[in-house]
Specification:
With about 90 residues, the protein is mainly α. It has one domain. It has five helices and no strands. The N and C termini lie close together (about 5 Å). Bound molecules: zinc ion (ZN). Zinc ion (ZN) binds next to helix 1 and helix 4. This is Mycothiol system anti-sigma-R factor.
């Protein structure tokens, strides 16, 4: 059951590409599609914020090398919690 205008299939499609989007590996049409979805879909925007936080932390701390394990665990824990919340809302 869903009362949202976007479907979970749209969300999964979007989230599958969010890392490529963050790495700027997508063409402009695909990037626009993801941005448009994020504007329309708050759960995905929340998750995108966490993904971006993970990426910026890793880049800032390590220059692409390994993240400090405590920091990485903490951020990934927040990501898992956000995903669990979103899945609970979809059910
Ligand atoms: Zn979505």
């Amino acid at each position: 059951m869903s009362d949202q205008s976007t479907t979970s299939a749209d969300c999964e499609h979007m989230l599958a590409r969010v890392h490529q989007f963050l790495d700027q590996e997508l063409d402009s049409a695909s990037s626009d599609e993801i941005r448009a979805h994020l504007v329309a879909c708050e759960p995905c925007l929340d998750r995108y914020d966490v993904e971006q936080a993970v990426k910026s932390l890793v880049n800032r701390c390590c220059g692409g090398d390994k993240a400090p394990s405590a920091l990485r665990t903490k951020v990934l824990g927040q990501l898992a919690a956000a995903q669990a919340t979103a899945h609970a809302q979809q059910d």
